[in-house]
Amino acid sequence: MEATTTQANALERRIDLSVAIADVEKDMEQRLKRIGKNIKMPGFRPGKVPFNIVKQQYGEQARYEVLSECLDRAFVDSVNSQKFRVAGQPRIEPKESESTTHMAFSAIFEVYPEFTPGDISTAEIERPVLEVGDAEIDKTLDILRQQRVRHEPVERAAEKGDRVVIDFLGKKEGVPFEGGSATDYPFILGQGMMLPDFEKAVEGCKAGEAKTFDLTFPAEYFAKDLAGQAVVFEITVKQVMGPKLPEVDAEFARSMGVADGDVAKMREEVAANLRREVKRRIEARLKDQVMEALLKANPIDVPNALVELEIQRLMQNAAKDLEQRGMKVKDFPMQPEWFAEQAKRRVSLGLILAEVVKTEKLLAKPEQIRTVVEEAAQSYEEPEELVRWYYAKPERLSEVEGVVIENNVVDWVIGKAKVSDLAIGFEELMGRKEQ
Asked: Domain ranges in the chain?
């Protein structure tokens, strides 16, 4: 077996392989003899099937297996001797050859990019800063109260935030249409459960009031037979209930898991949870900026083979997510190109991070892993149980180890880049719009 190397592009390599026909025939014959000792065939005793019959039935399979093994050995020997770091599987193609003693093949494959991590000192990173105080705690408590809101009957007209119960009947050109009617139908005004024009028509109505109004469905409405169509709705408002938020008292504290109903203790727990969440979100924003800085400083080529594998992984994850939501995957045919950009970015970051970690010696230390596990456990009622669960099996720590390594990279970049603190609003950090 002989090998030569040519380079097609930045990451693609081509190795020419030559396999001796005599070696293949010899190995094939030995394999067929082993097969003949074990096969059973009508009319022959076990192990006594004539060789020519064994060859006739199993010759092609044996030749394929032997040739594949010869090519694998030739390929591995060649890439090892030239110290190639192969990415993905090679593509083996036959070549025309005038030789009567050897078969010629080409192995086309990609290698991992070789690079030195780029200079990160000019990267500009804004570090969000937010101190958790009484105002942030109060806003969080307001949200928790809204999550526990009750609705009570009111005598006034319906307004946003009210829970209404209605009967409705929709007609298109005087004829009721499918899905256009319901009785005792409840919804909250202002939550977008119904079309905006429909909710606008309900607003201002009192319990017991009936109303007829025109409505035109949006052009992009999901039901194609109704999209852009004008219809008439008849509604009867049967109940209007206004929201009643719970008071921040002992009962509310007990609903939040504080057994003795101590409101001050509840505020302390809310503050502790809020600080952890603020810390997590700030770290996530920092990490996003660091990853973008690393990508910008390291414009590397990535192996298509790795991108294709990542696309397949992302598609599988998307399919699982659809199934978990109760949707049928066949109803949402996914296209690989939808995931191509994300896959390329993830592969690029993986390669860059690996090189930075190796170059700067940023591997996770046992004490760092322990710290992350213990911090994660603080949000549980019995933190020590979660810590024991992680350490019961070392493989459970692999995900935590990955988080620690990423944190080490973030700290390393922060120490090199131009970092400025940026005060950020509570609503913005939490991803909520100001009311």
From this structure: 2-111, 124-135+252-429, 149-244
Choices 3.40.50.970, 3.40.50.10490, 1.10.3120.10, 3.40.630.10: CATH for 124-135+252-429 = 1.10.3120.10
**pLDDT, position 6:** 54
* Count of C-beta atoms within a 10 Å radius of residue 274: 18
pLDDT in tens, 36-95: 888 888 878 777 888 888 888 888 999 999 999 999 998 999 999 989 999 999 999 998
How far is the C-alpha of 255 from the C-alpha of 339, rounded, in Å?
43
Closest CA to 31 of 2, 73, 59, 68: 59
In tens, the pLDDT along 313-336 reads 999 999 898 888 887 777 778 899
Cβ-in-10-Å burial (0-12, 13-18, 19+) of 3 comes to middle
Token digits of residue 8: 């097609």
| Residue 160 pLDDT greater than 60, yes or no | yes
CA distance 119 to 149: 53
What is the distance between the alpha carbons of residues 167 and 207, in angstroms, rounded to a whole number? 11
Q: How far is CA 89 from CA 70, 106, 181, 303, 366, in A?
A: 16, 13, 58, 11, 35
pLDDT band, residue 194 (cuts 50/70/90): very high
pLDDT per residue as tens digits for the range 266-284: 999 999 999 999 999 999 9
pTM: 0.73
Which of these, 287, 255, 281, lies nearest to 432 by C-alpha position?
Answer: 281
Between the CA of residue 195 and those of 167, 189, 201, 234, 400, what are the distances in Å? 16, 10, 10, 15, 45
The Cβ of residue 240 has, within 10 Å, a number of other Cβ atoms equal to 25
| Whole-number Å distance between alpha carbons of 205 and 193 | 18
Q: Which pLDDT belongs to residue 2?
A: 47
Task: Give the C-alpha distances (Å, rounded to integers) separating 332 from 319, 321, 326, 329.
Answer: 9, 12, 12, 5
* CATH superfamily membership of 2-111: Trigger factor ribosome-binding domain (3.30.70.1050)
- Count CB-CB contacts under 10 A for residue 342: 12
Which CATH code for domain 149-244? 3.10.50.40
